[in-house]
Amino acid sequence: MMNTDFNQVRGRIFDIQRYSIHDGPGIRTIVFLKGCFLRCRWCCNPESQEFAIQQLTMNGSTKTVGRDVTVGEVMQDVLKDMKYYQRSGGGLTLSGGECLGQPEFAAALLEAAHYWGINTAIESTACAPYESIQKLMPHLDLYMLDIKHMNSEKHRAFTGVPNERILENARRIATSRDCELIIRVPVVPTFNDTPEEIQAIAEFAATLSGVRQLHLLPYHRLGQDKYEGLGREYTLAHLEPPTNEHMQELKEAAEAVCRLAVQIGG
Amino acid sequence: MNHYYSEDIAKSPRIQKLIDHLYAKMPVVEADRAVLLTESYKETEGEPMIIRRAKAFDHICRNIPIIIRPDELIVGSSSQAPRGCQVFPEFSFEWLESEFETMEHRSADPFYIADETKKTLHEVYKYWKGRTTSELATAYMAPEALLAMEHNIFTPGNYFYNGVGHVTVCYGRIATEGLESIKAQAAEALAKCNPGDGDYAKRSRFLQAVIISCEAACIYAERYAALARTEAAATADPVRKDELLKIAENCDRVPRQGARSFYEACQSFWFIQQLLQLESSGHSISPGRFDQYMYPFYKSDLDKGLITREFAQELMDCIWVKLNDLNKIRDAASAEGFAGYSLFQNLIAGGQTTEGLDATNDLSFMSIQAAMHVMLPQPSFSVRVWNGTPHEFLMKAAELTRTGIGLPAYYNDEVIIPSLISRGLTLEDARDYNIIGCVEPQKSGKTEGWHDAAFFNMCRPLELVFSNGMDKGVQVGPKTGDVTQMKTFDEFYDAYKAQMNYFIALLVNADNAIDQAHAERCPLPFLSGMIEDCIGRGKSVQEGGAIYNFTGPQGFGIANMADSLYAVKTLVFDEKKISMADLKAALENNFGKIRTPEEAQEIITGLAKALAADGVVLTEEQIRTMYTTARTGGMPEEDRLKYEAIRSMLENVPKFGNDIAEVDAFARDVAYTYTRPLLQYKNPRGGMYQAGLYPVSANVPLGAQTGATPDGRYAGTPVADGVSPSAGYDTNGPTASANSVSRLDHFIASNGTLYNMKFHPSALAGREGLSNFVSLIRSYFDQKGSHMQFNVVSRETLLDAQKNPDKYRSLVVRVAGYSALFTTLSRSLQDDIIRRTEQVSM
Fold it and tell me: pLDDT for A175-214, tens place per residue?
């Protein structure tokens, strides 16, 4: 009998989304963990940032965002789409917020998924002590790591934190070869949407051993309503999402400086 | 490994020309067939009906005007006008005459009818009074059944007023052996008939009728050969001249003889397909496994170097276009139920051989290609899916889905084959199934399935539980007791089952009466020659000549009834939060829903005008009072709020479609209240009843006749579609919804189930999107779902969702790391999504 104590580990999530098809291979279930170290101004899930449970008012009704659950409870939902994972090569993706904010819980979720033979992935900023990352590694198949900007000052201006630790962790994860690593870039107008800025990230990504893919995720403002719902101001209200043509241009710019497979969208 | 060619093949310029010609004008009603039929009937008074039918068919085939349309390679048109239709007074005619003046301007499927045609048909119709199948059927029905129909519990409308259709004949055998082989078989059986045999009269006349009608079909084809030669002589275009001479050669040969090439086989197929629909007005005459029975001809030509893939594709495309040339006029109400001029000629690709091996071949891929080339509603295109289906094949099918045309429908061999075996088919026949019409599986060339026998509205019996069997002041159903006195949920559920059982028996009564009327007044000798074992048994399919006989009436409203009964159980009996009396009042008052200001205004304006005409002038005060009454129907505000509160409680009870095992198990049981009782009944052809669970588009018009239901559905709004969850109630995404639907028993509903899913095109973007989409189908099928079809949401749909958010509450849009229910987004964000839709669907 395998030890299944991981089922008892508790953590805080704010959503579980089934049939996700742009967040790792195949058909996946995303568990959104609450709390993040960054405060990206374009964040489409602003309710994910605070670890505290919050109230969100939308369309006249108020709902509580965030609940404390055990890994076992989460897995009940995750297991419902087992057939879809098997057929599509999909699985479980942890997103957030930042799953490294709750490393024990995240590690237990990944372990539980592996116990059931489910592929695992995380979408993460890697902005955490490397020890937290190491906790997840034994049961992590795919790390989708966001690199937002190579200039630390600008990074801090738009996300609230500098980028040194993120870049250092990216190198260590790549070197460890413990899991597959994909670099993803949220392409945000006025922040990082020039060919030069994207090329700088692409060049960095190309130095990471084992990395083969670079995903450029076009900014969208679908989270805008939620800022208001949380009583916050959305500071990027004036931004237009990048056009298809511009995304294509950036893709070509990235391809010009690296040999990674560059794709638009996750 | 792969024994098929799966690459794209280009579209010939001819195809678009054919399509443009076909759709240049509104379809027209033509009288030729009705006139010829009536002439023949007048000459054959007193003869056996089967002979009269054969002679009438012969008279039509010899004399109906024929036409070769510009650029056609496959010929045979039932009407002079493109997409025109003939009419069939032997089934019913009164509705048509009464709609002469409105059919051109009606919203669903309008038709043009010339004044001359109206006059001609008016004369023809004088003969038919008292001679139609619908009149005889009515005479055979029990009065209770007629009453139930009058009160909209069920409607057997389709076969009550039209031919049956819903059949697939042995196209492959005709292509191979020709109609001469059917004639020879009938002649041989006739020679064996002994005048002293007890069944000599019926048997011998039937066999003669088969011979007459097969010969008539051959003569019809030969008229086309002559016409093609005449046109060839007249044309100055040398290319077209050669084409016409080739057409003439084909029509000399088929369908009388076996085809010697793929081209001849295509022409043979077409004449059979067309003439079946000239013999009777039944729709859903389904080509079935075209990729299987046509393959030997294609393969042989290809191996010998006699044909290119491009030309084979062009011929198939021509057939795909021709399937849209056939048309049928329905009465205004049915036209809404079957909207889209659809004849439901279902053509299916892929699946297994009779030996259980993968059947995918070049033509399976080329069938998908043809659908992409023509982008027309016909044929109703389907694909079979099983564990051995090549991924590549489903990827190509998914590409077709992505176009947003709503094709193909996907069918699960792993459910359908065992389900058919449980209904008495042999293993080999079950493996060789195809789909008829919408979703109905059967074995071609052996089955009279009566697959579209009726629509049964499962919501209406529940209304009668609340009214103790009364409807509009009439005792329509059994007295199942005062609902407010029921002490347990079981008592309530038993009352529902009692109402169901009562009306299911009446449905059977109505269907059997219609069945009997068709056997007596419209046996079909041409069709019967191509269905085993009519010749052996010496009787038509209408009289039980087929090997497999079924009657398949459809139940719909599963989701509404599952949600309704579950809500009653939870709120009235388990939690006791609503009293039965309050629920009853809330339902009767449509949850306190009042008229919109516009509706009220209209009533007041009308009233004020009428009074003004009488010289009465209203004061402003009076008008205000009347307006309030018009809006509320006199319902006190206090009551209205109470009913609204009840609805909101009902809405918050967990619903089918959200992957909640307990609710889904409940839905499975509710579906049994329809599917199980049916199995005990027999039809006059000696076959059994089997349920289907789908409404075509009847859930909308029949929902309009249905009162409020305890799932929170307002009176008059559409009932749930097929086995799909109620629109807007499945809010956990496609996998949750599919898991719920898969928990219904799809095996017992052996006449087919229909599951409709909506997708935003971003879900199918790129090769990965297609692959995930295919996985979704596979996973639903792994869980023993039977059928799936998809609407890829268009820009128009999203615009409609902005206007009518209630209809689209479960519409999810997804981008990386984010998903949202479309209708909860603010207007400007919805506009963003709409812009994205335009991008992805390019």
Answer: 998 999 999 999 999 999 999 999 999 999 999 999 999 9
Give chain B's radius of gyration (CA, Å). 28
Q: In chain B, which residue's Cα lies nearest the Cα of A46? A: B818
Boundaries of domain holding A13: 7-264
CA dihedral B665, B670, B674, B675 (to 10 degrees): 0
Judge: A220–B771 Cβ closer than 8 Å, yes or no: no
Q: Tally Cβ neighbours within 10 Å of residue B142.
A: 14
Nearest CA in chain B to A123: B817
∠ CA B441-B443-B446, nearest 5°, is: 135
Looking at the domain assignment, is residue A2 inside a domain?
no
Q: Are strands A180-187 and A213-218 parallel, antiparallel or unpaired?
A: parallel
What does the pLDDT read at residue A2? Answer: 57
Indicate if the pLDDT at residue B841 is higher than 50.
Answer: no
DSSP code of residue A28: E
| Distance to chain B for A220, nearest Cα, Å | 9
Residues in contact with B252: Cβ distance below 8 Å, sequence separation at least 6, in sequence order:
B222, B225
Structure tokens at B243: 């084409």
Which of B663, B740, B758, B779 to mutate against chain A (most A CBs within 10 Å)?
B779
Answer yes or no: do A22 and B815 touch at CB < 8 A: yes
Alpha-carbon gap: B775 to the closest alpha carbon of chain A (Å): 5
Active site residue B266: no
Distances (CA, A) of B737 to A21, B657, B756: 16, 4, 11
Query: Would you say residue A1 lies in a domain?
Result: no
Asked if the structure places residue A29 within a domain, the reply is yes
Total domains in the fold of chain A: 1
Per the listing, tokens 């048909």 go with B121
Beta strand B554-556 pairing with B455-457: parallel
pLDDT grade for B837, boundaries at 50, 70 and 90? low
Cα dist from A225 to A57, A58, B9, B108, B824, whole Å: 9, 7, 47, 40, 10
Determine, yes or no, domain membership for A75.
yes
The pLDDT value recorded for residue B59 is 98
User: Do A21 and B814 lie within an 8 Å CB cutoff?
Assistant: yes
Distance between CA B842 and CA B827 in Å, rounded? 23
**Mean pLDDT in chain B?**
93
Q: Which of A215-224, B750-759, B799-808 has the lowest mean pLDDT?
A: B799-808
Q: Which of B90, B243, B336, B440 is flagged as catalytic?
A: B440
At B840 the pLDDT is: 42
Interchain contact, A224 vs B829, CB within 8 Å: yes
If phi over 0 gives left and psi between -120 and 50 gives alpha, with beta otherwise, what is residue A129?
A: beta
What is the arithmetic mean of pLDDT over B740-753? 96
pLDDT digits (tens, 9 = 90+) for A52-82: 999 998 877 888 999 999 999 999 999 999 9
**B438 belongs to the catalytic site:** yes
Residue B682 is predicted with a pLDDT of: 98
Least confident of A19-33, B344-358, B559-573, B753-767: B753-767
* Residue contacts between A and B (CB atoms, under 8 Å): 97
CATH number at residue A113: 3.20.20.70
Domains of chain B: 13-140+167-341 (3.20.70.20), 449-521+550-594+635-753 (no CATH), 793-842 (no CATH)
Q: What is the residue-wise DSSP string for A124-176?
A: E---S-HHHHHHHGGG-SEEEEE---S-HHHHHHHHSS-SHHHHHHHHHHHHH
Interface pTM (ipTM) of the complex? 0.89
Question: Choosing from B85, B251, B438, B459, which is the catalytic residue?
Answer: B438
Lowest mean pLDDT among A66-80, A218-232, B58-72, B431-445: A218-232
| Confidence at B1, pLDDT banded by 50, 70, 90 | very low
* Backbone φ and ψ of B650, nearest 5°: -60, -40
pTM (predicted TM-score) = 0.92
